[in-house]
Amino acid sequence: MSVTSKKKKAEKQKREGISLRTIQICLITGAVLFFALMLFFTFFLSSNFKTLTQRSEHHVELRKAALELMNASDYLTENVQRFTVVGDTRFLNAYFDEALNMQRRENAVAKLSQDKDCKKALEKLQQALDNSVKLMDREYYAMRLVIEAKGYTEYPEVLKKVRLKDYDAALSPQQKMYRATQMVLDNDYYMQKNLIRNDMKASLNELEKLANSFDTTAMQTLQRELTVVRVIIVIQAVGVIFLVWLTSHLGIHPILDAVEHIKNNKRIHESGTSEFRYLVRAYNRMYDVYKKSMERLNFKASHDELTGVYNRAGYNSILESIDLTNTYMILVDIDDFKSVNDTYGHDVGDKVLIKTANALKNNFRTDDYICRIGGDEFVVFMVHASKEEQASIGGKAQAINAALADTADGLPATSISIGIVHGSESDDAETLFEKADEAMYHAKQSSKNTHSFS
User: Fold this and answer.
1) Sign of the CA dihedral 129, 134, 136, 138?
2) Would you say 40 and 89 are in contact if contact means Cβ atoms under 8 Å apart?
3) How far apart are CA 354 and CA 360, in angstroms?
4) Residue 11 — very low, low, confident or very high, per pLDDT cuts 50/70/90?
5) How far is CA 111 from the centre of its chain?
């Protein structure tokens, strides 16, 4: 083939490497990403502005709630004054309807207490409430005077606890009315009202400071966010220009390299444009999924489907890979497993097998290998173990049998017999298994629910 023909062929390969469709898709993808980001930040700003508006409305609600305390206090004053002047029980009932049922003062304090930022305002409002409650003692006394003067027999229970002083009790009805009116209209009464009002003003001032502080902080935050958005717009504009240039001039070599890797069934090295890197990552994820699927198939081939431990094939593979000289081979057999199946059915039998496998997993190390080599027969390879660990293995055996005896899970109590042999006893795996089987048989013959060392 001539040089000219080779050059023409190379140029053709280059031309076919990047198609107009690919460039178009990359441009559209970039544009979509750009507008998605713009939409995101627009939504972000809108959300923050909404938060600012909601918080401002919340501050207005808090201010209204605080004012409600003063309104409620004034309402109580108005009704107690009317009652002491005219003695009409309608005003008495209106007073206690507010004090005991509507409870606008207490509700105002409760509302402010829900906002942790209103601590100072809440303290002032609580002082106003305390002074208002304190003033009620004077009002109760005045109302009691009116009740005594009018001879009322039906009135709120709380006023029955009020006891008049001897000299007040000795007054005539007209004098009691006059005394009651004085108590809710004199300077001392209005001095206490002024204390409530001053505390209210202090509370409102604190709320105003809090609202101003929040508004200032929120506006500063919005300004910073707007600046960030402007910067992002500039960056995105530059990025779009760069994207157009990149998708127009790059792509051949990364694609060719990717094709070779795909042919050789390998992961693709990430290189080239960002869009191509995205495709590479997508392919590599699919490749990893494929590899994991293959690994899962291999896992299924070497593991028991019911219990999740190694099966007979896994057992044989383990024998080929571990050093038996520092490994305990532990043969486990479920006692009277056939009777479990016969009595409770195979579904329960399967659950007992799973429970046994889990008990083995929970009591042996993650480095150890657990295999199910038969119907109710398991083998545990306790690796990197010296002969001096017999006591530890005995403890594990007792713990496993204790777990199997527990019927809290609704399964019948079972037990296992265990035969144990150290790998140093023989270089031959079959011989070790025979010794473990003999030890296990000895455990079954002795009492079951126990273990025996070879």
Assistant:
1) negative
2) no
3) 10
4) low
5) 28
